[in-house]
Amino acid sequence: MKRSFFIAIALLTLIAGKVGATGQTPELVVIGRDTLPILQLPLDGIDDGMRSRLMDNLRPEGADPSLPIFPISSSLWRGYRGIWQIADGKLYLTGLDNVDNGDEVLQKTFGEHYHNGRVLAWWFSSQIIVPRGDVLRWDGVFARTYDTEDFYYFEGGVETKMERVENYVRVPGGLSRRQDPFRMDPYPPVAEAAAKVLKGKILSTCEGDYRVTIGANGRISKVEYARSGGNPKCPKKLKRKLKKLKFDIVKWNGKPYEETVPLNL
Fold first, then answer.
1. What is the spatial distance between Cα 137 and Cα 231, in angstroms, rounded to a whole number?
2. What is residue 237's three-state secondary structure?
3. Which residues does 104 contact at the CB level (< 8 Å), separation at least 6?
4. 154, 121 in Cβ contact below 8 A?
5. For the packed helices 102-110 and 48-58, what is the interaxial angle rounded to 10 degrees?
6. Can you tell me the mean pLDDT for 212-241?
7. Strand partners of residue 27
8. More confident of the two residues 141 and 37
9. Among 152, 74, 88, 72, which Cα is nearest to 120's?
10. Parallel, antiparallel or unpaired: strands 148-155 and 144-146
11. 37: which strand partners?
12. Among the listed ranges 15-24, 57-66, 200-209, 247-256, which one has the minimum average pLDDT value?
């Protein structure tokens, strides 16, 4: 059963690659009065037997059991959307959105572990990242990083620690890396700033399309041609010209990362 499910996911992934990736719907977590999106999928950690029961219970009544369960839509490949709750220092599964009989599915799947409309996520020993700010970057499908994020750590569904992380760090004298994360902009602010510094300082022999990498420390770490060919001395020359530039630091879920942007000369 599990093999058929993942074959279905693989097929849809292949199709998505041909027609254009579709942004995936995140899970939801309730904390106090707040309902927030999360990109972690805690149900991925249940054992094979429980996953098989979940898939069987999600299957529409009368459907051919030999066929895999295909997702509801291209924006929800997994076929369901988990509703979670962090309360009393524990992580609970409280429902399945996009499923007509979500409560019944939970009860049939988890049996005696289903109490008062929720299931303690006893299998989950990892972290939940809760957004507390605007989106900074998006990978175009699912993964995102936000201005501020709360990291909740769990062991066996019991919270062990919570910490707040700031993913945008202003550097004194640093250039802004703010941009619309949902716009595929070929000339983001970083590239524009670099172009201004280089204006009038590069020989015509170095005109062309480049990729400039902003390192984890906010400095230019690499310059290369966007396509093969060109004067091999130019990337090194450009890097020397850009070495004094410094940018604000962007983190992805708490970790500084390198970001490559286009630069046209």
1. 33
2. helix
3. 57
4. yes
5. 150
6. 91
7. 38
8. 37
9. 88
10. unpaired
11. 28
12. 15-24
